[in-house]
Design a protein that fits this description.
With about 210 residues, the protein is an alpha+beta fold. The protein contains 6 helices and 8 strands; from the N terminus they run E-H-E-E-H-H-E-E-H-E-H-E-H-E. Helix content is about 30%, strand content about 35%. Strands 1-3-2-8-5-7-6-4 form an 8-stranded antiparallel barrel.
């Protein structure tokens, strides 16, 4: 059964700190997060089109997982390595707790397209474009994530170190089998919806 919640994170990395950043993410941060009850998977990506450079999302059993005692304990007591990364390496963070709605697809793809939608923008036109372009040889899955502020956290120690996080209202998350298809969809959206943040990301890794 799929998790009903998502923690969606976009961020940059300080120049020349890439090795430290990757070592921290793979060897400490992902394992630490996935040990928390209710965390199901984490998937990390790097930008092909647009910025910030990195995108990560965690599938969780419920948005309430992200206010659980176990998770709050980690946010309020970061490790020395996490404190270093938050202070000097982790830049331009956008972090939002979301309700997860799976529109279609049973598999994950190798390329992710994220379309951040302003609060006032109806989704129907965008969903129609995707529906018309959907086929098993291209689009692997389509999800709609909407911000759930009732399960968002107050500023904890980690965010206090790195500075205030940006938030999204909602996001269409699309995974394709090949990057060319994701780029094609992104270009189509950019021509029609210039007020939205549209990014294409290449999968780096996944941890369950």
């Amino acid at each position: 059964m799929s998790g009903k919640g998502v923690l969606a994170i976009w961020n940059d990395c300080a120049q020349s700190e890439e090795n430290n950043y990757e070592n921290w993410y793979q060897n400490e941060h992902l394992p630490e997060r996935l040990e928390i009850p209710g965390f199901i998977r984490g998937r990390r990506y790097e930008s092909i089109v647009g910025s910030p450079r990195f995108f990560t999302w965690y599938e969780v059993a419920s948005p309430s997982t992200l206010t659980s005692e176990s998770y709050m304990a980690r946010l309020s007591d970061p490790t020395p390595w996490t404190q270093e990364i938050m202070a000097n390496v982790f830049l331009n963070a956008s972090r939002t707790v979301c309700d997860r709605h799976i529109i279609s697809g049973q598999v994950f793809g190798s390329t992710a397209l994220t379309i951040q939608i302003p609060e006032t923008r109806p989704k129907e036109a965008m969903l129609n474009i995707i529906e018309n372009d959907k086929n098993p040889s291209g689009v692997a899955r389509i999800e709609n994530w909407t911000a759930n502020t009732s399960f968002d956290t107050n500023v904890m120690t980690e965010e206090g170190i790195r500075g205030p996080d940006k938030k999204i209202s909602s996001c269409l998350f699309i995974e394709t089998l090949r990057k060319e298809h994701a780029v094609s969809i992104a270009e189509k959206f950019q021509r029609q919806f210039r007020d939205m943040t549209i990014n294409v990301y290449d999968l780096l890794c996944e941890r369950h």
